[in-house]
User: What shape does this take?
Amino acid sequence: MASRIVVLLAVLSACMACPSSLPATEPASMEPKLVDPGQKLPGAEERLVVIESRIAMLEEKFRIIGERIEHIDRQHDRLYDAVAQLQKDVQKIKGIKLTMVKEEPTPQPRQGKFIIRNWTGVNQYVSVNGLRYFVSPGRTEIMVPHTTVEAYLPGFEGPKLFGMSNWQWTGQNHEMFFDIRI
Assistant: This one.
């Protein structure tokens, strides 16, 4: 109630300072005069109604402004929290050494044992995947990629392809056998 009276007095003094807002019944150069508290002033009730409606309008505007300030304050708090989280994330990222392209190790082709069994009793030349090997009688192991293998005896036969179905898994290695019998 006391705040309403203070606002009422402020509005009254503003109205007194700006005589154009007053009804046209009063002269523009109005000097404040002391009046008897029991005396009724002409037009006072109308002025009081106008002042009260203006006070109500100002109170509504202040209420709306207060709501907007609270809304902005909540948004500010959310933005502040988001910025604080981003700063923490940046600090974490600074501590981690990142590379833009993850380097994958070059896959090594799986190797298998190409086992040549020379049953002839004499040395032989064998071409395996385009490379020529000197093979003594008995067993010779050559490590080759675990894929289709091309093998033959140069001078005796043409190239032969041995597919993936010829590989056998022994529990430790893949093995493929090539027998020489003449």
Summary: The chain has two helices and eight strands.
